[in-house]
Amino acid sequence: MYVNQKMADIVGHPIEELYARGVLDLLDVEDATSLSRRLLARRTAGAEEYELHLRHPDGTSRCLQVHGSPLWDSDGEFVGSLGMVSDITEMKRVERALRRQALYDNLTRLPNRTLLQDRLEQAKERHTRGVTDSVVVVFLDVDQFKLVNDSVGHAAGDQLLCQLAGRLRAASLPGETVARFGGDEFVVLAEGLTAAQAHALASRMLAVLDDPFDIEGRPVHVSASVGIASSAVCRPEELLQAADAAMYVAKRRGDGGTQMFDGSLAAEARTRFDLNVELRSALSEEQLELWYQPIVEIATGRLLGMEALARWNHPVRGFVSPDLFVSIAEQGGFVRSLDRWVLRRATADLSDLRAGGHVRPDVYVSVNVSALHLTGGDLWTAVSEAAWLAGLPPSCLGLEVTETAVMADPESASAVLRRLADDGFGVALDDFGTGYSSLAYLRRLPVSRVKIDRSFVVDAAEGELDRTICASVVTLCHDLGIQAIAEGVETQAQHDMLLELGCPSGQGYLWGRPMNKEALLTWLARGA
């Protein structure tokens, strides 16, 4: 046997000791047996690569990569084996870390959506082969978690999620997978359960919320809504969506509810499943269209801008509710593609209207942005590219964001909106007054426009409280140099009231309903 100094350094033993003890004595029992077989078969087996694990004198285990090959003399006779050894311990550690990062949630250390999907596929395959009787998915969504973030801060919200994850993990049984699906959503995957056992599983998970969470020294109580789906009542490939649909039914009934997916929900879940597929095709095949609702100067009726609204006229289903298909795009993971399409189509249409002399150069188009895109990291690029491709100045493109969308990640949202505002793009805070801290967001965000929610406008002409709220918002916006836009203006009485309050601009059926591009051209031709 011959051993060089590099090999001695790797294994941590002097060369003399290696000659005396041999290499096999340093290996794990299983690897020593495997290496013995490989050496005996080297003459016929030829060259090969494999890994070995040995005990280092410092107490650690080292992973070695070995390239073994037969050794022949000048006469072609087999005389032994040649092993080229590399220490790949650190490389293996990095691989494990990267694999864990790809498969586990960084905050809670639970399996993430990717690992959950993989385990769900394995469970479905076992169910198909008859190895297990059923596959069950329990979908848990924390109720009003955004309130927690908004009242005690995002760091505290993260603490709550980590503590909840720990409780859910502790409450799980062997064979069950507890995963963080995203945000404040968790999923438990189990196999071989009856309907009663599935309900018991959901109850076991909800029970972890009975005691308050200790967040920065204060007790915080939360509830959750739970949806349950079993392969006994729906197809395995639809389990996640079915459990999600059941969870939303539970949430609509009130905090802390549980709903089992059954036949009454099957049609709804099937529709969402089909719409997910059909919406992707509609987006790629340009089946969607944009409608526009005018934003006008209240005193004169002069057009100031237009809100772009995505519409989907399904060839079979007819017009699909925007709330429905946007939520499907969000859950399906392609809402950014939808947002990019809206941005490019809206800017292209405005560019055409400008080129044709149909609108003044200062008229803008406003686009709604989803919460996922707002904090996803590429919104600035999508907005900038859309304006550049259409040849529009930034002032002609505005973004509408809701307080709810901003609350998902205020720091990221504020940063990207600040960058867009610095470049000259407009930022509008939509549905103003319906959130929990609207005034705070006026201070935190680079807002150039505020859209007063229609719920205040509708009754403001007759209701003193709503009138007072509208007046306060209009005055506040004026003092801050922000354009106030009253939404939902439908009657002359509302128009007159807003004019009296000094509200500069409005949007609503009084001036025009949402309309496609052709109808908009007709509306513009009337001299708006």
Which sequence of strands runs across the widest sheet?
A: 11-12-14-15-16-17-18-19
CATH class of the largest domain: Alpha Beta
First-to-last CA distance: 95 Å
Q: For this structure, what is the CATH homologous superfamily of the largest domain?
A: EAL domain
Count of helical segments? 22
Taken as a percent bin, the fraction of beta residues is: 15-25%
Helix fraction bin: 40-55%
Shape: elongated
Q: What Rg, in angstroms, do the CA atoms define?
A: 32 Å
Multimeric state = single chain
Instruction: Count all strands and give the number.
Output: 19
CATH topological fold name of the largest domain: TIM Barrel
Protein name: EAL domain-containing protein
Domain PAC: 48-100
Domain PAS: 1-39
Domain GGDEF: 133-263
Notes on the structure:
This protein has 528 residues and is an alpha/beta fold. The chain folds into three domains: 5-94, Beta-Lactamase (2-Layer Sandwich); 107-261, 2-Layer Sandwich (Alpha-Beta Plaits); 286-525, TIM Barrel, CATH 3.20.20. The strands form four sheets. An eight-stranded mixed barrel has the order 11-12-14-15-16-17-18-19, surrounded by four helices. Strands 5-6-4-9-10 form a five-stranded mixed sheet, sandwiched between helices. A hairpin with a 3-residue loop joins strand 12 (303-314) and strand 13 (318-320). Helix 15 packs parallel to helix 17 (410-422) and helix 19 (454-460) packs across helix 20. The longest helix is centred in the middle third of the chain and has 22 residues, at 263-284. The chain is elongated and about 105 Å long. The mean pLDDT is 86.
